[in-house]
Amino acid sequence: MDARSKQPVTVSALSKKSMGKRKQLDDAPAPALLPQETLEMLSDEEGADQAVSDDGQVDEFPQIDAESDEEDTDEDDEELFESDDGSENSFDRDIFPRPKTIISDITGQPKRVYPEIEPDYDSDSSTEDTQNRVGDVPMHWYDDLPHIGYDIDGKRVLRPARGDELDKFLETVEDPNSWTSAFDKTAQMDKPLSAQELDIIQRLYANEVPDAGYDPYEPMVEWFTGKGKEEVMPLSAAPEPKRRWVASKWEKQKVMKIVRAIRQGRIVPSKPKTSAKLEVYSIWSEPSSSHPPPLPAPKPRLPTNSESYNPPEEYLPTESEREEWEKQDPEDREREYLPKKYSSLRLVPAYDQFVKERFNRQLDLYMAPRVQRVKLNIDPSTLIPKLPSPQSLKPFPNYKSLKFDHPSRARCLSISPDGAWVVSGDESGVVSLWEVMVGREVKRWKFESKIGAVGWCPRTDVSYFVVALEETIHCIIPPHISASLFQSTKALLAPPTLPPPPETPSPVKWVSSTLTSDGPTLSVHLPPSSGLPKQIAWHRRGDYMATVSGSGLHGGVWMHQITRRHSQAPFKKIRGVVQLVLFHPSKPHFFVATQQYIRIYNLAEQKLLKTLMPGIKWISSMDVHPSGDHLIVGGYDRKLCWFDLELSAKPYKILRYHTRAIRSLAFHPTYPLFASSSDDGAIQIFHSRVYNDLMTDPLIVPLKILRGHAVKDGLGVLDVKWCPRHPWLVSAGADGAASVWCS
Amino acid sequence: MIPTAWSRYQLSQLVNKALSLPKPVPFDFLLRGDILRSSLADWCTQNGVGEEETLEIEYIESVLPPQKMADLPHDEWVSAVSCQLDRCFLTASYDGQLRAFDYSQKQTWSTPVHRAAITSFCIVPNVEACIVATASHDLTAQLTRISPEDSSQASKPLASLHLHTEPVSAISANAAGSQLLTASWDGLVGLWSTEIPDEDEVAEPATVERKKRRKVEENRPKRKAPSLVLKSHTGRVSGVSFSDGDEAYSCGFDSTLRSWDLEHGVCATTITCSERPFLALSVSAAAVLASSTDRTVTQYDLRDPSPNASVTMIHPATPSCLARAQTNSHHLLTGAYDGVARIWDLRSVKTTTPVATFKVWDEKKILSVDWRAGGTVAIGGEGGLGVWKAWENNT
């Protein structure tokens, strides 16, 4: 009974794809072979599974063209069913592995144990990724645990190792599949997306239906209408309304209106169409009105005396003229011919340029534009902007006056406010005090670690400088200062009565050491692990000093007040790594440079004023013009940006003239000069005049490239500073030399 | 009429013959302020002088290349040298010591004068004793009686001069030995008398260690106040000098040269140049020679206060010091930071090349030069003291 019920299903399924075959089957009596074979096969196996597999088989049945005869089709059928047979068997085996019955160790009862599923080629992929059987619980429950859940055996699934941001970045570069992987919450790791998932994503991107199997244009199945399903019976028995057969009065009025208009001649019936016969007309008879009349063709030149076959002697060219004429390009020649003398007309040869000349004349008449072409003769040198000559912008440093040698890489230097002394620090921990003009070291201090920065206090009523070491800042009083100056400096750095400590305890410790006279008088201990301070920036009044450390809390920025012996971190939290800080020369503004941006804060109002975007990958240096309205920023990517702070957040000028990274920048406090030093071992001096008139742009003129520092280990000139009262520059280089450049 | 193909050698022979000198002397020749270095024809074409013109040729005795006599290395840089004393060279160095060397290149005597570096010193002409005035980084100048010939006798500090609040850069005594001038970085010029006072003229700053001071009471120099303070410079005063006629001159980093009226204590003449910070000066009768950081040594005429230099000598490095020849006032010796000393002839105003050049040290700075009558030249600097022989005769 099962077999009989199956038979029509098979037949109809077979015939679904080819309508022609169906007709054959319907019309002709079925051949005896076909049902027998099908029946045979069906009798082999039974059950619901079989029906399902049959249906699947029918879907995959290949298209058969109508011409092929029955025999072939049947054979195809046979083969397909046979192959299907085999696969079904293997499928059966895999799905139902034979369990083993063993005695459980715990309960003592017999239990069935299934063999482990081997993850081989044709194993089910759905078993792989569900290793974590934690279920649909929020995964942040496992945030503090070393594992992320439990597998099917109740063992812990350990958290996979996750790299940091750099690893992620490297993965995106190195692994070609990384961009097609997504974070799997359950496995807590990145899993590559399967081809189907990628296909879904691509379809979503293309605004298509995500399901690949969905066909929006499949033929409509006519369930209720169509041929053979017409409704014969009316839906209601109401009589036909009168309007269905009585002519409309309104329509009659409309028609009569048109009829009346035609009669009165207001509507003219369309003319009969003229035959498509070309009319001949003269195109030259009347000029087109919209265009200006064409220029007349140029007239051929009249012959002159020099073109005569027997010109007077004075028309004949000399030897040098002939050579010059032959040397010139044909376009540059004043005449196309050279006058020649023949004693009689008989001897004149045929004109060799005749064809060429006619051709050119034809071109002139036919194709040449009738416009007088004006050739632009621009001297390229006039396009270069006019800059004043460097000689007129003297004074500026132009030669190396003297050199002071450090035992190792000279990192930083600072010049006293009176411009007489230089203090320079190097990487071996040596701080030297020397004269600007003679270059003789007067005193030397040796510290344990390398010097990060030095800075001379800008106050003139006291005299001391500050040396920044690893986590420590020392204030040192230089020798050879007058007694009154020494007393006031001593009173400032080591006062007899200490100012009251701040209410909130600060992690920064201020320690006065009075033991040695030539050592540091005051030491500021920064919190541990804050690293080497990279920079010291003084406020113009000399009471506040800002330091930038390499690492540590609050971006490493500390602001120290000398008189109150108090340090504070101006920023609770700052985005990015702080590179540099600067005080505005006149306003209570504070510049903070991170790797790519410069933020200007108002310290009095405690708010962000502006963010400058120099477009530099990594900022290395900056300096503010003494007027306070202009800022220059240099980067490790060789760019220098000039900002007009009143103009915009984008640079006014971007200069790129160094061949290596810019290391240091400095504006001269009084002269209109600035200098930049670079890893290419050169210092470049620029004239930078800023006008009070807001309409005039700043004038930037390159003046001089100072070479003389050697490049060592890829590092060139690390720091430049100007002498306050003279156009002299002091530079510190990686070759250990500190040089003075004089005008 | 002489052939234009002639050069210096032929001209020199001609002069020797004309003067009928017993021993041939080499001569150099000046043509319109320019020293002849090639043939006359070459010079004429270079300077655009026609063949028809009459040339006036001046002959001067040539300076032979100087020869090294001694090299006396020091532990410290030598900041000042002097050969005014007989039979010895005095040097002052950055360790605050004065040293004396005799002609046999031996250090005969040395004494510490200052705790800090000595920047400059001069010998105060005195008939009774040898007195030296030193200027130092420790903000004072000091008068010291020394006896370099007699090593047994200790030197005695006589007086310390207290005025300046920044390091003293230069000191100079007048010919009579009665007055001293000091120049300092604080822009002041002090005028002092050389008389040693019996009492302190300036009160000592109150210090805690009174007992210690008592002990050294006898040996302690008297604290001396200036007789006049000359204020006019706006920057560091780098050089100061008396002229032969006891007029005071100073130069400074504010690019000015000033002469002072010592009676009234006011600035008499000012020559203001543009951007030419002066490092040192040397004064003769009416002309002042000053070296500046723009690598020039220039001669100014003080009778004409316009900043037009009559002679400009251009150096390849910073000229730090200069000294005039004692006997021949046309010759000038300059020392520069490249370790090269140069002798210039002030009569050849046009040329930019010195008449003699000698390298004292390689890449070591020269800080001081002095010229002894007779042609011995003492050069002090980074490498110590160098003594050279430069022939110098009167013609």
TrEMBL record, chain A:
Biological-process GO terms, alphabetical: maturation of 5.8S rRNA from tricistronic rRNA transcript (SSU-rRNA, 5.8S rRNA, LSU-rRNA); maturation of LSU-rRNA from tricistronic rRNA transcript (SSU-rRNA, 5.8S rRNA, LSU-rRNA)
Gene: ERB1
WD repeat start and end residues: 403-444, 655-696
Compositional bias (Pro residues): 290-301
Region (Disordered): 1-138, 285-336
Compositionally biased residues, Basic and acidic residues: 324-336
Protein's name according to its UniProt entry: Ribosome biogenesis protein ERB1
GO molecular function: ribonucleoprotein complex binding
Domain BOP1 N-terminal: 142-397
Principal location: nucleus
Assembly information from the UniProt record: Component of the NOP7 complex, composed of ERB1, NOP7 and YTM1. Within the NOP7 complex ERB1 appears to interact directly with NOP7 and YTM1. The NOP7 complex also associates with the 66S pre-ribosome.
Cross-referenced InterPro entries: BOP1/Erb1, BOP1_N_dom, WD40/YVTN_repeat-like_dom_sf, WD40_repeat_dom_sf, WD40_rpt
Cellular component aspect of the GO annotation: nucleoplasm; PeBoW complex; preribosome, large subunit precursor
Lineage top rank: taxon: Eukaryota
Annotated SMART domains: BOP1NT, WD40
Role description: Component of the NOP7 complex, which is required for maturation of the 25S and 5.8S ribosomal RNAs and formation of the 60S ribosome.
Family recorded in the similarity comment: Belongs to the WD repeat BOP1/ERB1 family.
Subcellular location(s) of the protein: Nucleus, Nucleolus; Nucleus, Nucleoplasm
UniProt feature, compositional bias: Acidic residues: 66-87, 117-127
UniProtKB/TrEMBL annotation, chain B:
InterPro entries: NLE, WD40/YVTN_repeat-like_dom_sf, WD40_repeat_CS, WD40_repeat_dom_sf, WD40_rpt
One Pfam family named in its UniProt record: WD40
Keywords: Nucleus, Repeat, WD repeat
Residues in NLE domain copies: 2-43
WD repeats: 161-195, 230-270, 328-354
Highest taxon of source: Eukaryota
Residues making up the signal peptide according to the UniProt record: none
Protein name in the entry: Microtubule binding protein
Protein source organism: Mycena chlorophos (Agaric fungus)
Taxonomic lineage from the root: Eukaryota, Fungi, Dikarya, Basidiomycota, Agaricomycotina
